[in-house]
Design a protein that fits this description.
This protein is 38% helix and 20% strand. It is α/β, with parallel strands linked by helices and 393 residues long.
Length: 393
């Protein structure tokens, strides 16, 4: 497949789309679905013969052979050679995704002081990386058009550093992002109704997918982190966001703001009749800057900082309990500074969740730190492209 052939619609990232297809569908949807089914099987398992693919997917051998021929012609699949076999007859030819034929550009706009990016292979391994600082010489962070110019600069550098045709560009951005990749609002960056996906596609001539950074992080945990079942990933940074996977699909919400839990009031400190108050929202206790300020103040006063972390965990548990109860989630994943989140904060969150939900319904609920580290949004950006372009994750 040429670079030109991978341009165009990213497709298939809408609400309710199951990330990993496993079964046949109706004839009118069959070809694209079955194509993704074959690619997904090879992406996750690798080294499968045509007969193996037929058995694994439930498709007929004729259908598999037809799809494989198409994928070989496009350069998305390669033949590895014959399988060693003790059985009589011609050995089967093994197939795999052509993992070196294309690269992916991933961009993370969620850090408060810089934009980060990487060129990755189809397995999410970083080949080259780059970053641009948000602050100018006067120390003032760029916003609005100036911030957009920083994104352009970073993407241009990454595209130039690629060493293979680019499958697509994935971007994880803070704020509320719709399915067309328009950033409806990102207050910290001064963006409102910014059609970033369309802008970058026109600038680069490549397929581009832009999504909320917490949603991208949830995809990374799903694809590369071994997340099982329904999951909520809580991303703690300058603000608080969450990505939610239910029944194998991302949850977006009616206004694309599902997971925006940072502005949810989590205290009744001022009474039950209190209206919305920014001093009572989750970010007031849990954001990284707020936690760091609290820990510094405790250190300067010679006090134990553990109560600050525990209260933040309790407030998070208060916010999460109704979600866990309503959706019967099996896993909560935390993404952010390990030194802040792991330990007393996570323990207090679990304790609060267990106290505020029916134990027998959530006995197997687990809460853990992400396995993806600081690259989680970058790797999630790669999954955005893989899912949108190839239907795999």
């Amino acid at each position: 497949m040429t670079t030109t052939e991978v341009q165009g619609s990213t497709g298939g990232l809408g609400p309710g789309r199951v990330l990993r297809p496993r079964a046949k569908v109706l004839p009118e949807h069959a070809r694209s679905h079955n194509r993704s089914l074959v690619l997904q099987t090879l992406y996750r398992s690798g080294e499968r013969s045509r007969a193996d693919l037929a058995r694994d997917t439930g498709l007929t051998r004729v259908t598999v052979s037809d799809l494989v021929a198409e994928l070989l012609a496009e350069g998305l699949v390669i033949e590895l050679g014959q399988r060693e076999s003790a059985r009589p007859g011609k050995p089967a030819v093994l197939l795999d995704i052509n993992r070196s034929a294309h690269q992916i550009v991933g961009v993370d706009l969620s850090d408060h002081d810089r934009f980060r990016g990487a060129v990755m292979d189809l397995d999410g391994a970083i080949i080259a990386s780059a970053e641009v600082m948000l602050a100018d010489d006067g120390g003032v962070p760029a916003t609005g058009e100036a911030a957009l110019a920083k994104v352009d600069e970073l993407v241009d550098r990454l595209v130039a550093s690629s060493t293979a045709p680019i499958l697509g560009v994935g971007v994880g951005s803070p704020g509320v992002v719709d399915l067309a990749g328009t950033i409806l609002t990102a207050p910290n960056l001064g963006w409102s109704d910014l059609a970033l996906q369309r802008h970058l596609a026109a600038r680069t001539g490549l397929a581009v997918v832009v999504a909320n950074d917490a949603n991208a992080a949830a995809l990374a945990e799903h694809t590369y982190g071994g997340a099982a079942g329904d999951m909520m990933l809580i991303r703690v940074g300058h603000g608080i966001g969450a990505g939610l996977l239910v029944a194998g699909a991302l949850v977006y919400g009616s206004h694309f703001a599902a997971g925006e839990i940072g502005q949810v009031m989590v205290g009744t400190d001022l009474g039950l009749d209190t209206t919305y108050n920014r001093d009572q929202v989750l970010e007031h206790w849990l954001s990284v800057p707020q936690l760091q300020r609290g820990l510094r103040a405790a250190a300067e006063a010679g006090m134990d900082a553990t109560p600050i972390l525990r209260e933040a965990g309790q407030r998070l548990g208060i916010a999460l309990a109704p979600v866990v109860g309503a959706l019967n989630l099996s896993e909560i994943v935390l993404s952010g500074p390990t030194e802040l989140l792991d330990g007393p904060l996570a323990e207090a969150t679990v304790h609060t969740l267990r106290n505020r939900t029916m134990a027998e319904n959530h006995a197997d609920l687990s809460l853990r730190m992400t396995t993806q580290g600081q690259d989680i949004v970058l790797r999630g950006a790669a999954v955005l492209v893989l899912s949108g372009r190839l239907g795999v994750s």
